[in-house]
């Protein structure tokens, strides 16, 4: 799998290229690349009925979910969430721990109330 396979990952890749001097952004980019790199590319909808292994689908979903959590952690630590989630700018490691520890429904609730600001400017 690569960044271009998922629109949100592509938006983050574009953000990372524009902010290559930011250590947090580049660290997040590397972490995501490690997560998605070993995962097979997602099948297209047309290929799904032709025997796409369930394990590949599961791996793709898990990689996208973890990558999404890392992106939100990066956005929080670099002040790219609107409205801000907290009255302070969290450190990157705490932000990663927070988003990785959220339950699925909690993550959905957080992402519904907030948005990542760099995604507004990205065109895919």
CA gyration radius, whole angstroms: 15 Å
Rough outline: globular
DSSP helix fraction: 55-70%
Please state roughly what percent of the residues sit in beta strands, choosing from under 5%, 5-15%, 15-25%, 25-35%, 35-45% or over 45%: under 5%
**How far apart are the termini?**
17 Å
Which H/E pattern describes the elements? HHHEHHEH
Largest sheet: 2 strands, antiparallel
The average pLDDT is 89
Low-confidence regions: none
Number of helices: 6
Sheet with the most strands: spatial strand order: 1-2
SS-based class: mainly alpha
Number of β-strand runs: 2
Describe the structure.
- Helices cover 60% and strands 3% of the residues.
- The radius of gyration is 15 Å and the shape is globular.
- 26% of the residues are buried.
- The chain is built from six helices and two strands.
- It has a two-stranded antiparallel sheet with strand order 1-2.
- With 124 residues, it is mainly alpha-helical.
Question: Which labels suit this protein?
Answer:
124 residues; mainly alpha; globular; 6 helices; two-stranded antiparallel sheet
């Amino acid at each position: 799998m690569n960044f271009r396979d998922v629109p949100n990952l592509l938006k983050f890749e574009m953000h990372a290229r524009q902010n290559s001097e930011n250590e947090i952004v580049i660290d997040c980019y590397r972490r995501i690349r490690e997560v998605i790199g070993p995962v097979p590319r997602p099948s297209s909808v047309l290929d799904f009925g032709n025997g796409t292994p369930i394990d590949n689908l599961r791996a793709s979903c898990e990689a996208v979910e973890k990558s999404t959590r890392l992106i939100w952690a990066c956005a929080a630590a670099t002040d790219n969430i609107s409205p801000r989630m907290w009255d302070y700018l969290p450190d990157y490691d705490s932000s990663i721990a927070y988003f990785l520890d959220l339950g699925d429904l909690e993550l959905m609730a957080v992402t519904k109330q907030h948005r990542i600001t760099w995604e507004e400017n990205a065109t895919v």
